[in-house]
Design goal:
Length: 350
């Protein structure tokens, strides 16, 4: 058994999990997991407030680790290593999780594995689908990131595309805010979109048709704002038309990336919070089929932030002998592909 305690605290979810890296099914791999969302704390502000997030992680994480170990019927002595998100993310929250992991590792004399949160998302499809082999083409779509990467192995990423402005999840969240749907926005927009006509509001498809597979959503968001201000469209129609426009962009950009990818990709894979969106999964399913590839998407609960994916990435790293010193630093920015060239027009989110 390779038992890993995983800890996640990079944004607004506090989570802990016990993962069995040798499990051969998803059910066997996730021995126990707990997650506490801070939605209620952040809702009045319409977005995540970093100080509130860090304080909430501090209050919740210690007892949660004890509880998840109890759920697993274990003590800290039983685990082989402790994995925690070390970035990227809100630095206060990341530090709460990482410092907790360091303290536990020191107290129990266990190795520490510092996990890149994005690697957690990137490898989560392998946690969910034990048959998924490297290399695969990954569409990583979350609140902070929107990238297409070749995943050739643990720590082996080549970025083919990124966003030059907003991330896809951010576009969903901003649309939700414009429509007064509250926070978090993605699931609310998806729900409302089911009641609307996706062809009713003319909206732009930024960068569709361009030869490089990069993304842009800022212009789409502005158009959604103008459509709302016009006062002539039902909110459900705006939501449905926004979602359709966004998905058209994603499908077009991913199609370009599939053509640009190295030969031998075993699957098209989607991960990150927005991968929970059923319409997105449907559209990508069709695109993958066009290319004779399976679409692999983790169950929605493993798409949004969780500790199982951090424990799993820790398990993959630990199996390769990768551990980290107890003085490893938290990193607010930590790209998966250090060699990716900056993209023209890209801001801090690249
Ligand atoms: O991966 P995640 O939980 O946190 C980050 O690392 O960012 O992703 C959160 C993002 C949010 O922008 C949220 O609105 C979006 O994922 N999201 C969705 C859906 N569920 C979550 N967007 C569209 N449809 C959904 N069903
Ligand atoms: Zn995430």
């Amino acid at each position: 058994m390779a038992l890993i305690l995983g800890i996640e605290s990079s944004c607004d979810e506090t989570a802990a999990a016990v993962i069995d890296g040798n499990g051969t099914t998803l059910a066997a791999r996730i021995v126990a997991q707990r997650i506490a969302s801070q939605d209620e704390e952040h809702r009045p502000y319409g977005g995540v407030v970093p100080e509130i997030a860090a304080r909430a992680h501090v209050e919740v994480l210690g007892p949660m680790v004890e509880a998840v170990l109890a759920d697993a019927g274990m003590t800290l002595d039983d685990v082989d290593a402790i994995a925690a998100t070390a970035g990227p993310g809100l630095i206060g929250g990341v530090m709460v999780g990482l410092v907790t992991a360091k303290a536990l590792a020191m107290a129990a004399d266990k190795p520490l594995v510092a996990v890149n949160h994005l690697e957690g998302h990137a490898l989560s499809p392998r946690l969910a689908d034990p048959t998924l082999q490297y290399p695969y083409l990954l569409l990583l779509v979350s609140g902070g990131h929107c990238q297409i990467l070749e995943v050739a192995g643990v720590g082996q990423y080549r970025r083919l595309a990124t966003t030059i402005d907003d991330a896809l999840g951010e576009a969903f969240d901003k649309t939700a805010k414009i429509l007064g749907l509250g926070y978090p926005g993605g699931p609310a927009v998806e729900r409302l979109a089911r009641e609307g006509n996706p062809k009713s509001v003319p909206l732009p498809r930024p960068l569709v048709g361009s030869g490089e597979p990069h993304f842009s959503f800022a212009g789409l968001k502005s158009a959604v704002m103008r459509a709302k201000d016009a006062g002539i469209h039902a909110d459900a129609d705006i939501a449905a038309s926004f979602q359709q426009a966004a998905l058209d962009c994603v499908v077009d950009r991913t199609r370009i990336a599939l053509a640009a990818a190295a030969p031998g990709m075993t699957a098209l894979v989607v991960a990150g919070g927005v991968a929970a969106n059923a319409a997105l999964r449907g559209a990508l399913e069709a695109l993958a089929a066009e290319h004779g590839l399976p679409l692999v998407a983790p169950p929605p609960k493993l798409c949004t932030d969780n500790a199982a994916m951090i424990g799993w990435a820790g398990a993959e790293r630990f199996a390769l002998g990768y551990t980290d010193p107890l003085d490893v630093a938290a990193r607010p920015r930590w790209p998966l592909d250090d060699n990716a060239a900056p993209v023209r027009g890209a801001g801090v989110k690249a």
